[in-house]
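Minutes, project check-in
Item: structure for the 111-residue chain
Input as provided by the requester:
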Amino acid sequence: MSADLDYEQILPRPRNLELGGLVYVLHFVDPVTGRHKRLAHAGHYVGYCGRGLDSRLAYHRARRGSRLIAAVLDAGLDFVVAFTMPGSRTVERTIKTHTHNVHRDICPLPR
């Protein structure tokens, strides 16, 4: 799929849509090979930031964000930003609820 994909192409339109922030998908990788790597069941993380993506990623790298991202980093894996789009917490929740295979449905990076 293309990196400029609009969420309306794959997801139902959420109610009360406010595009005040950024929805992002993190793709887990092996830092040695750069290839896609899963941690147990998870190969991606979908998140939202209202202010700035760089500060949110720094927050994740400091292990103060998602518990999943902390576990990924503790396991020796890394992550890259695979996809971003304007959105809200509602859009983030819609993706998490309606997208059962993030890699197939949203992530433009190869497996």
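Outcome recorded: The mean pLDDT is 82.
No further action items on this chain.
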